[in-house]
Amino acid sequence: MTLRVPTICIAIYLALSCFTARADVLIAAASNIMAPLDEIIVQFEEQTGEQVKVSYGASGVLSRQIMRGAPFEILLSADRWHIEILSSQGVGILADEDYATGRLALFLNGASPISQDISILTSFYELGKIRKFAIANPEHAPYGRAARDVLVKLGIWDLAKTTLVMGENANQAARFAASASTDGGLVPHSLTVLPESVFSGNTVIVPADMHAPLHQRMALLDRASSAARLFYDFLRSNNARSVFLRYGYAVPEQQG
Amino acid sequence: MAVTITDTSGIHVDIHRQNGIALEATFSCAQNELLALVGPSGSGKTTLLRTIAGLEGQDGKSIISCRGDIWQDSTAGVFLSPQQRRTGLVFQDYALFPHMSALQNVLAAMEHIPGPLRHERASEILSRVHLGGLEDRYPKELSGGQKQRVSLARALARDPSVLLLDEPFSAVDQVTRNKLYRELSELRQRVETPIILVTHNLEEATLLADKLCILHHGRTLQEGSVTDVMARPASALVARLIDMRNLFRGTFLDRATPDDPYRIQWGDHVIEVKSASDIPVGKEVDWVVPGSGVILHRQDRPSNGDRENPLRGHVSNLLRIGDTVRVSLDVDDRAETRIIFQLSSRVANRNNLSQGAEISVSLAADSIHIMQPD
Amino acid sequence: MDWQSLNVSLQLAVWTTVILFPVSVYLSRALAWRQFAGKSVIEALVALPLVLPPTVLGFYLLIMLGGDSVVGQFYEQIIGQPLVFSFEGILIASLIFNLPFAVQPLQRSFESISGDLREASWCSGLSAWQTFWRIELPLAWPGALSSIVLTFAHTLGEFGVVLMVGGNIPGETKTLAINIYDRVQAFDDSTAATMSAFLLIFSFIAIVVVQGLGSRAGKWR
């Protein structure tokens, strides 16, 4: 008899679950774009009343999920390459274009205000001051690939290899970099621009010529609903672009 | 395997099985009868009981019928499930449902009775087995004897066509056991159901049963009334199984004249017997004399009976058990011809019986039983 | 506090428990009381998710249920959506990786019921179903409770397999456990802390409630 009440509650709960419809726009985005994208989504939802749900992750992981049938309607990659992979694998793409260009920043834990010279990393390594250094996994994340480019360009890749702590995606790498257990890392610049950011004050912007440019490209997939298409257009609008700019991204020339 | 069913009120069993525990068993138990299935451990008694209950034994050739209903007939492909048969099975370890009270245990067997009547009838059965007032106790709160009574009540609640008791008294102490014996006898006066009791305890069997069925390695060796089986075992094996001691080999001799008794050559002795049988002369036979047929020659009061099959020897062993004395007499001072019998202490003392004493006895000719060897 | 991912977690836990319970009752009964060829193989298969790393489980589940698999393609033809990255996909994964938690306690409980009791029930006239419902299940109730509680709690906590098979789709496969991981990565520790505390308290209360029910059922022991 004591089972009757819980059983009825559970039955009702389960019955209700059958009726929740999923009408949200579902998109996948590289983790580094989280902060500006969240703001843009809020604006969009207020304006149109449509709900947008995002899955953040490494571009490689997300594109592979899409290839295996994940129901995302838009992919915001951290590079162009993963969009090309999608299209070459036969995934239906309605439209694609660059939406922002990112930068890398060097963060050194516990270092006092330092000069804006990237070679400080080389000195730190040569002085043995770096035991653990965080970057995103170059296999999955464009920001990780860029980080590797930088280390190679600096000539310290062999030195750095054994110290690397690899984040699954750019944001996780940043999380590692910020923790007291590492001595720093190469993180998305956009994470360092806000005054309340944990990285504030201890970062050096990595010169753009030290790595392949982080042209971030988005693709509208052919299963996109009309609400998704609306959002895609919104991402190209001036409102969205100004948000990207505020977070330290460069934006493409207005395409009219 | 032809079985003629003449009496449709009891249960008839005829089982022949080779697989697993081999069974070759044939017996019946009528209304109001209690049949004891007796045999040593491993003789297949429990298997037989379980087969009657329908818990096993779908293979092999068998016919089981009860009250005219065919429960099992391998040639006709009939096998009723335990639920379809109406058996009341009392397990050796009671098998009471631990999560139910005594009353609920009994009620569980009453699905065949309409709801409103069940409670009253269950209480009635419980008081019949002297458990009134204990209806709401759980098995863990009951003694061994009480649990056995609940088990019996549950079996009776089924309105069974046959009551099957599987060594029901083996797990209780002697005092409780005696009480339960009396209660079972009382119960039988009010219940007409045939009862089959499985036991390895011969004493219990002779105490409670009307009929005995001796089982050995799955074969029924003899079926008959208690007195019949105990006095006239079918073979030396049966005699041994019913713990008859004075079992010997001899040669069957012709009688001197038609008026004379039959005779057996036993070593140097010629034993006179009264039981007639068509045994060929010169045949080796087994013969047995029960302790009651051994009569002590009283030194102080010789009688004519002393001339009947006289034997002498020395007492090789004297065992006092309570009020009786068990005497082992080595006839002609040989251990192979040892005769065992019982006397009251009084008689033993009066005759100054002691270990090593020389005595003589007579074997009553009409108590001697002859069996043909297998 | 993200109610949507909590809802996904609860849905997953409840559906898994509700579907798995009758299945595990059937399976554990058969394993407890029947002898059949291949029984030890089945017992080993049931126990497998206990020892396999979640990533191995996730890997094989992706192969079995993914877009290239027979099951996956069949599902997609009927429903129109892929099986992986959907709630149904992680539900199937959940049913599989919860098997040992659901079956083993129940099996042990059934094994401890003496065969005599079932036979006494049959001889008393109770059918197989009545025997199951009135004798076997009440006696196996402690094992049943363990089975339910363990399945529920384990599902709430499962991370690796759900992530591999389900991805991280909000409202569909993003469970609370995954969301906590997500929030930590996003430097949102306060939300992560709230959600973690919630999961902890919720699981604790669930266990206490169920155990309370259990102790009341055992007064005859």
Rg of chain C, nearest Å: 20 Å
The helix count of chain A comes to 10
The number of E-state strands of chain C comes to 0
Strand content of chain A: 15-25%
Number of separate helices of chain C: 12
- Say what the CATH topology of the largest domain in chain A is: D-Maltodextrin-Binding Protein, domain 2
**CATH architecture tag of the largest domain in chain A:** 3-Layer(aba) Sandwich
Describe the structure.
The complex is a heterotrimer of chains A (256), B (374) and C (221). Chain A has a five-stranded mixed β-sheet with strand order 2-1-3-10-4. A three-stranded antiparallel β-sheet of chain A has the order 8-5-9. Chain A is globular. In chain A, helix 2 packs antiparallel against helix 10 and helix 3 (59-67) runs parallel beside helix 4. Chain A has ten helices and ten strands. Chain A is of the alpha/beta class. With 374 residues, chain B is α+β, with helices and mostly antiparallel strands. Chain B folds into two domains: 11-240, P-loop containing nucleotide triphosphate hydrolases (Rossmann fold, 3-Layer(aba) Sandwich); 247-371, OB fold (Dihydrolipoamide Acetyltransferase, E2P), CATH 2.40.50. Chain B has nine helices and 21 strands. A six-stranded mixed β-sheet of chain B has the order 7-8-9-3-10-11, with helices on both faces. A five-stranded antiparallel β-sheet of chain B has the order 2-1-4-5-6, with no helix packed on it. Chain B has a five-stranded antiparallel β-sheet with strand order 14-13-12-15-21. Chain C starts with a helix and ends in a 5-residue tail after the last helix. By secondary structure, chain C is mostly helical. In chain C, helix 1 (3-33) runs parallel beside helix 6 (99-111), helix 5 runs antiparallel to helix 10 and helix 6 runs antiparallel to helix 9. Chain C has helices spanning 3-33, 39-51, 54-65, 70-79, 87-97, 99-111, 115-123, 128-139, 141-157, 160-166, 176-185, 189-216. Chains A and C meet through helix 1, strand 2 and helix 8 of A and helix 1 and helix 11 of C.
